[in-house]
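agent: user wants the full assembly modeled, not chains individually. Plan: 1) parse entity lines 2) check alphabet per entity 3) run joint structure prediction 4) return tokens. Steps 1-2 passed, two entities, 591 residues total. Proceeding.
--- entities ---
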Amino acid sequence: MNGAPLELFLLVGAALFACGAAGVFRDAEPLRRVIAVNIMGSGVFLLLVAIAARGGGDRPDPVPHAMVLTGIVVAVCATGVALVLADLSGGEEGDDDDGERS
Amino acid sequence: MTSDHLLILIPLAPLLAALAAFAVPRAARRIGLSASLIMVFLSLWLGLKISAHGPLVHTVGGWPAPLGIVLRADGLSALLLLAVSVVGAAISIYASAYFGAPAGTAASRQSRFFWPLWFFVLAALNAMFVSGDVFNLYVTLEIQGLAAVALVAMAGGSDAVHAALRYLFVSLTGSLFYLTGVAVLYGETGTLDLAMLGEVVTAGSPSIVALVLMTGGLMMKAALFPMHFWLPPAHSSAPAPVSAALSALVVKGGFYIVLRLWFGPFDDLVSTAAAQLIGVLGVAAIFWGSWQALRQSRLKLLIAYSTVAQIGYLFLVFPLARSADARSTVVAGGLVFLLSHAAAKASMFMAAGNVLRAVGNDRIESLAGMTRWMPISAFAVGLAGVSLVGLPPSAGFVGKWLLIVSALDQRQWWWVAAILVGSMLAAAYVFRLLAPAFVMTADDFRPQPVPRIMEWSAFALAALSVVLGLFAWLPAGLLGDALSRGTGP
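--- prediction returned ---
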């Protein structure tokens, strides 16, 4: 790999994951949370791709690549389900009736 | 080692049933019932095979472990597969009557979605229990999560959609935390296989980070306090058979993987402090869930909070099973408790569904006089309550007893105190249900009729959760020395 060192990819991946996680926990608006989950996912995928390249040489490790591909398929499905539900819910998450969180 | 194709059939049977039920909605009910029967048969077969010959292994497509996918099953897998297939079959039978309502009603519309989604959940659970590698487990978690979310949303209405959406976000976040842990673990060790990981995981910060990420993600999935907040709205707003399936079986998936990891590859890595911490979270779940259950005015919410509490007991296994001598007793106790809760909680939600059908709402005061107008369901609530409280001879009692004895042996008396207080709280919320049920009501009260099969399936599971206590040596025997130090999954 030329240019950026591997650690940079790992750090950016971890940072994306953390930003996404913060968004999912903090935001109330479904659409923003869908995007936040996808950012989290991208962070993990970046980590995996960096791990695949880590072995060095000209052939990267195929196993993390397979994991990323599977992960992308899952992420697309999950995003689809989330968007349908977000559409049905019509915006902000409503008041909870479980009586312990407001 | 010989390759055993039975291990492929275990997840394949429900998966094919899900696809068939989706393709041919008119036959979905028949497909579902026959597939449930097949699943009971397969899991019994597997159980017998494992108790006779020990753990089974299958390398899918003949590709060995580092590259291929390995399926494995030991006594723990067999036990959970049996629980899923038996409780699942009862839920399918219940659902066949529940969704068999006259055409045009909400229940008959939901039928179309219920059968495929329910069998996707079963396929995910079955695949989880025979998975031999950590990435495969991630995939099963996602299938299970997405199908379960869709089942919650199926009820329609704003409450159900909001609950489903929140469940989806927690579920996705949980699985991504888990996946990040898997990535770190792979980066450190270069393998995903559970058995191989056991040999190569070394003490050090990457392994610890991986374990924390994976455990944290799975805690969300298992709804362990303080990540339980999504459970009560999701489980209570779903249709009755779905609530039963989610509370009885689906939340146990997360627990199962934590069990595999903590007593598998990470066995030597987990510190006493970490084990005590997860136990403390379990105790917090017991107290908080029971306390909230006492405060609810709706039947289904009470039962859902009871699930939050009962999950807490399962996590007491972690601090108590640290010592090698106590492990087999504690794990057996935890598993008997899990089986008992699966049967009892499914039964409770089924009975709640019957009440809802009969009187049109699920307020606790609506139970008034239930012993007169719905005696079988009322009896089911009573029996399931006996198991939830942990009164002898129920399986709930045996499970708690094994935990208590082992805690006293190890002089960790604080867990004993937590279990006893938790049981008293459980008795209090169960009596909140039983007290109105015995109230005398006017003779002219005529609730809507409920199909007999719905009442009897609730009763059968409640009875099972009590009777299992007398035969608790059976699951303990099947469990054998799974998870003991030095034996792989």
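agent: reporting back. The helical segments of chain A are 6-26, 30-54, 62-89. Confidence is low (pLDDT under 50) at residues 93-102 of chain A.
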